Amino acid sequence: MNHDLLDPAGAQRIILDACSQGQRESCHSTAALGRLLAHPVLSASALPPFDNSAMDGYALSGGAEPLPTDSEWPIEGEQAAGDGARNGTRGAWEIMTGARMPDGLDRVIPVEQAERLEAPLRMRLLAEVAAGQNVRFAGSDVAAGETVLTAGSLLAPQHLMLLAALGVASVSVASRPRVAVLCTGRELVDDPDTPLASGQIRNSNGPFLAARIPRAGAELVHAETVSDDVDAFLAAVERTRAAGARVVISTGAVSMGRYDFVPAALQRLGAEVLFHKIAIRPGKPLLFARLPDGTLFFGLPGNPIAVAVGLRFFVEPALRAMLGLPRERPWQVPLAAAFTKKPRLHFYLKSRIEVSAQGQLAATALTGQESYRIRPLAEANAWIGIPRDAMELPVGTLVDTYGLSHLESPQWDGSGA
Ligand code: AMP
Ligand code: MG
Residues near ligand 1 with C-beta < 6 Å? Predict the structure, then answer.
């Protein structure tokens, strides 16, 4: 078997070796949705911050024994949410959910289990109530000084809820890697309102990458479309530099065709090509290089699915490393249908994970795996990776399965989402 071509795992190693963790920056908690924590968050205060009532009812005090049913207690005051500390050593206090417990009181009887009586104003217990009942104690959710979020957490709305509750105004997050996209091809038309001339097609890679890069934790700082012309391409690379890009992704012009000029352009830039071609389908001609100023360059072949695979399995691992995230681990999901392939190349398959009537997951490779076919990708919700040497995969074979985007895939090892 011909194993001269670089394995995807070997390519990913070369990429990771070329990447270093980026800067961190401070970010207002309210603007931190989707950012990755660079430092753990410790709670400066307890949550809840004070003992408070879990119910609308009456706050009382007593000893170790529950206060008995039918006992009567004078109503001494009222405590609503927002009221400050009060002294409440004797009798019952009418209390609302979330109100601070008057000092000295240690239990709450819900209003449904109490009867209010007049002349004199008092209440009767319709059930017994023990110490601590219906009280939410200070620090019972979060103790002061506790680590509440670990470094590497992808901040989701529930994390913003916690940060807001704790009064954390800003957090330290990983800076977003600055990425530029250059789509090559004289056949490409960007403006959807421009009618296509004979032989032209619309640029679909550009909008795809522009949409995916921010969702992958990076910042798109420059994007343009250039013709199949080395000088035009070099001028565009110069503009990515001016925009501060640390990663440049090009699409097209890295294969063996007459107009596949990207390798020649890189040579003129004095770039170090770290590999060109991987034993994968689609996307085999993928090229990875380092420009003299350290900028990383990914030359993805132009077919849309080669771009999707190149981004997902080679660019995104680099972004993870820059963001300080650990390597991803695929999920093992059984195949819902047999799959057959020829050896030699590692396949990345547009797939769907479906839930059976019994609630079990199974993965199906969609029909239409050719690298020009976009529609199956629009139907996919996952990728399957099939190793180079695999040929016959019966139903039920466990296969490496990945979400469509590294940050949008649940991570079971505690990293990422
Ligand atoms: P290339 O890698 O330049 O040989 O391009 C391979 C195939 O992908 C050709 O059919 C191109 O027309 C197509 N292609 C290249 N760039 C794009 C793009 N930005 N959007 C859609 N298709 C593209
Ligand atoms: Mg081309």
Answer: 183, 185, 187-188, 201, 203-206, 251-253, 255, 257, 301-304
